Structure formats: C-alpha cells, structure tokens
Amino acid sequence: MSAIHVLVVDDDPAVEYYVSEVLRAAGYEVSAASNLEQAEAVANGSKVDLLLSDVVLGVVDGLDVEEAVRRIQPAVKTLFMSGYARPRYGTASEDPVLVKPFASAELLERVDALVGSTAA
C-alpha cells in the first residue's frame, strides 16, 4: 500500500517546513508548494490525497488553491490552516480549518481524521 500523499501549501517557509516534517515523521508522503502555480504542478504530477493549505497566500487564498487542485483531482480532501478570522471559510467551504498556532499532535489528529493514519 502506498503512503498517503499530502500537499502542503504555505507561503511561510517556517510553517511549511514544520508541517512537512511532522507529517513525514508520521509516515505521510509530503510535497510542498508556496503558491497556486506550484500546487497545480504537484497535482498534475502525482495523486494527492489531502491538500493542506494556508488560508492567506498573498494574491490568492486557500479556496483558490483548493478550486484549482480539485479541477485536476476532484476527490482530494482539504484541510485549511489559518491564524486569522475565517468568515468566508465557515460558510463557503465544507472543509475544516486548523487554527494556527497548532501543536504537532493536533495537526496529526486532524490529518488522520480526514485521510487515516499511515502508521502500522
């Protein structure tokens, strides 16, 4: 069985690194992107099980990234991350939001709940 693939999208390199390392240590396959174009390239190149995207990404936002990735892979699940208020995300999307800052245990709990753990 292949590892569950998570696409982490965050324009803050420290957050991207932290999230990616926590997920890799738990057995997930991880690809990282810092913008919409990079996220689309990953989605075009390999199957993505979970999109884990920051809400605020400069010109675009997490919903834009989700829409673009779902055009390529309609079945992808999504978990948003944000340190900001989320009125748009509470009503326009069925996908949950992980509020920053968060601990590694909370991250893994939320990811595992969406896609299942890769741990044996």
Number of strands: 7
Shape: globular
How do the SSEs run, as a string of H and E?
A: EHEHEEEHEHEH
Assign the CATH class: Alpha Beta
Number of helical elements: 5
Give the helix/strand class.
alpha/beta
Q: How much beta, percentage-wise?
A: 15-25%
User: Largest sheet at a glance?
Assistant: 5 strands, parallel
Oligomer: single chain
Give the N-terminus to C-terminus distance in angstroms: 11 Å
Per-chain topology:
Blueprint lengths: L4 E5 L3 H13 L3 E5 L2 H10 L4 E5 L1 E2 L2 E2 H11 L4 E6 L4 H6 L4 E3 L4 H12 L5
Parallel strand pairs: 1-2, 1-3, 3-6, 6-7
Antiparallel strand pairs: 4-5
Protein model, in words:
- The chain has 120 residues and is an alpha/beta fold.
- It has a single domain (5-115), classed as Rossmann fold (3-Layer(aba) Sandwich).
- 43% of the residues lie in helices and 23% in strands.
- The chain is built from 5 helices and 7 strands; from the N terminus they run E-H-E-H-E-E-E-H-E-H-E-H.
- The chain has helices at residues 13-25, 36-45, 62-72, 87-92, 104-115; strands at residues 5-9, 29-33, 50-54, 56-57, 60-61, 77-82, 97-99.
- Strands 2-1-3-6-7 form a 5-stranded parallel sheet, with helices on both faces. It has a two-stranded antiparallel ribbon with strand order 4-5.
- The longest helix has 13 residues, at 13-25.
- The chain is globular, with a radius of gyration of 13 Å.
- It starts with a strand and ends in a 5-residue tail after the last helix.
- The mean pLDDT is 88.
